[in-house]
UniProtKB/TrEMBL annotation:
The keyword Transmembrane helix applies. InterPro entries: FA_desaturase_dom, Fatty_acid_desaturase. Pfam families: FA_desaturase (PF00487). One of its GO terms (cellular component) is membrane. The chain crosses the membrane at residues 60-89, 162-188. GO terms for biological process: lipid biosynthetic process. GO terms for molecular function: oxidoreductase activity, acting on paired donors, with oxidation of a pair of donors resulting in the reduction of molecular oxygen to two molecules of water. Residues 79-335 form the Fatty acid desaturase domain. This is Fatty acid desaturase. It comes from the Bacteria. The keyword NADP does not apply. Keywords: Membrane, Transmembrane, Transmembrane helix.
Amino acid sequence: MTMHQTLSPMPLTAPPKATRVQFMAEDDKAMLRAVRDLTKGLGEAKPGIYWPDMLLSAGVGYAGIAIAILSGSLVVKIVAGLVAALALYRALMFIHELTHIHRAALPGFRTGWNLLVGIPLLTPSFMYEGVHTIHHKRTQYGTVEDPEYLPLALMKPWSLPLFVIVAILAPVALIVRAAVLVPLGAVIPAVRTFTWERFSALSINPEFRRRPPEGEFIGRVRWQEAGVFVWSWLLIGSTQVIGWQPLATALVILSLTALLNQLRTLVAHLWENEGEAMTVTAQFLDSVNVPPPGVAAEIWAPVGLRYHALHHLMPSMPYHDLPEAHRRLARELGTGSTYDGANHPGMAVLVGRIAKSTMGKRAA
């Protein structure tokens, strides 16, 4: 045996990542303490970041739609449409921030977002407020009561393409809801109840039924519903003046936006829970971070959503502070830690993992 052979290091393999199953009964309390201690000094929502980001995203998106409608060049239409879809996607994702930030943190931002983005895209903030927070409740995440959870990894293979493709119909469905169901519901209580329970929440769980609004939330729902009703009929009425082509172009662009969001939703979690209540750590490990160095995730998971698992540990952390929070935790806790278990390399790997799991179900 040569000296080189004697001193050659044994091949190293990366330790297996922590999984949800390991922490179903008990939290990793050391990690949770580290999250609390290492993120001190973060957490203040900054108007100087929120407002310019939202306004620029919305402005670029609407400009892109206008160019796609008015241009005579097919190439320009396609490029403008893609830019518009991505920009409006980013602008729309601020609805997620609105559900978590304190109402006093960003004066006027909720109203401004609804007027500039939520109502024009027929997705006002009430469709997420009071719904998304259920997804973060300790005893309801991943259960049948969670409006934003389906065990997709445990379902049949055909469920994945259906889950993604159905999103293409979202813009048309939103017009029907605002223009037809909302006014009918104003005069027919049964339609109003049906529309509220089934079509007034950004939910992916078909079993979810939304409870009636209460208190001051009722007033917010009413003015936002009035806004989408008026806007939907302005869109429909515009076809009698300028034809169907502008509206059809906008709907195609918004269908792409909805498709992007559905793809992001598909990889926001591992979807491996069968309805059991989970610890906070188990919820974290069933969720997904796609941290740098890759830049693609900043496009398909904007406004902090590339740190979705970390968000489940700190739901009220503003999106602009999540990158720094992740850097601190990754540096301190290191590779192989429980925290590292929620970090994944990208969308393709995650889709492949979920698809492989569903194929296993077919074989079973």
